[in-house]
Amino acid sequence: MRTLFCLLLLGSVAAADRVVLNDGSVLEGTVKKTSAKQLMVDDKKVDLATVWLWEREAVAVYVPSLKHRLRAYRVLADAEQLRRCADLFPKAIASTNRAAALDLLEWAESAGLEPKQSTAWRGQLDKLPDHAKAKEDPEPYARAGHAYTDILLARARAAKAARKKDETTCLQLVDTILRRDPEHAETNAFLKTFVSKRWRIGDHKTWLQWRLLILPQGARVITRRHPRHMDLDKAISTWEFMAKYLSDERKKEAKEGKKVKPVEAIKLHGFETPEIVLLTPMKEARPLASFLKYGRITCRALERIFYTDNPGREEYTPLVIYFYQDKESYVQLSGGSPGHLGLTLGHFSPGQNISRFYWFKRPGAERTIMEVFVHELTHHWLERRCPRFTWEDMN
């Protein structure tokens, strides 16, 4: 019944406000806020605590949170896909277009078609001969399968065009679409209109993940020449020098007839928060966001533990983190003993103001790396930031 109710409402012609409730139902009509805790949808009273979204002409009027808003949009998208499939399925059956009917059934089931309706549709589908296929334009049927992306993309465009631009909601919707259909042409083209050339990534999908996962950690993207910290520029140069040295060494080995693995040019990406500076050739946003997140949590916890009325360090020194893409790079570019480094996941180098770590893929890898990171960052913070004493005082 709930599915049918949603279909009837979404299929109505008259423009009206739309309210999505936390049970997945959708109401349309004239909406008024009668009190701080209640809405009136036509003659029906609705508790505001049960509302995920109230929108007018695809623009949100009331929404309790971004999480609720995204859930509501998914409900609307699924309901619209159900409506389109329900409209077209009888036509596909009447024209004996078995392929189209099967697609419509699968799309409807993915959008939440109720089991009884699914059984009835399959019964009609089974009556068609296996070879049945009408010669007709497939586009109307194909568009039914795009209802989900159409609804979400329309809401993303509305969020961008609204008087108060809501870029976060807009990009969250774009991310939802691309997770379902990574090659969706309209959405990819729309996303490219956001990409900041200053970041110089050259990949709009990577930019999206950085924007959604890294920037909320309070990080900003930094460039090769950093105005605040001379030692940071030195740290970048050190990495580049080590990479070049390694490349030259491999060239010598190649000339001597030894089999060597080619070295690709390393392009570093930099991120700065008030707590750390992260340098890495990696683009994958999730582990980078974890470094920035736990870097903030660790440093702030240490600040509370070692709080003192004494003045802090006279010069602010960034805690520089190198995050290598694999174990081989970590061992070869760290400059220490390969035998010793090969047994570690990360280490702090006191004399260089650099902590080094590397990424590997296996179940539970991120948690293991973060445990090592927090441990080594504690050493790093005690030397460079602790207001009670300096590393020299401790030794």
Give the helices and strands, then pairings:
Blueprint: H1 2-10, E1 17-21, E2 26-29, E3 31-35, E4 38-41, E5 44-47, E6 51-56, E7 59-62, H2 66-94, H3 98-110, H4 115-126, H5 139-144, H6 147-161, H7 167-180, H8 185-192, H9 204-214, E8 220-222, H10 230-255, E9 269-272, E10 276-280, H11 285-305, E11 319-324, H12 327-334, H13 338-341, E12 346-349, E13 354-358, H14 365-384, H15 391-394
Parallel strand pairs: 10-11, 11-13
Antiparallel strand pairs: 1-2, 1-6, 3-4, 4-5, 6-7, 8-9, 9-10, 12-13
Helix pairs in contact: 1-2, 2-3, 2-6, 3-4, 6-7, 9-11, 11-14
Summed up:
The chain contains 15 helices and 13 strands. With 395 residues, it is an alpha+beta fold. The strands form three sheets. It has a six-stranded mixed β-sheet with strand order 8-9-10-11-13-12, sandwiched between helices.
Q: How does this structure look, described?
A:
- By secondary structure, this protein is of the alpha+beta class.
- It is 51% helix and 15% strand.
- It has 15 helices and 13 strands.
- The protein has a six-stranded mixed beta sheet with strand order 8-9-10-11-13-12, with helices on both faces. A four-stranded antiparallel beta sheet has the order 2-1-6-7. A three-stranded antiparallel beta sheet has the order 3-4-5, with no helix packed on it.
- Strand 10, helix 11 (285-305) and strand 11 (319-324) form a beta-alpha-beta unit.
- The longest helix is centred in the first third of the chain and has 29 residues, at 66-94.
- It is extended, with a radius of gyration of 28 Å.
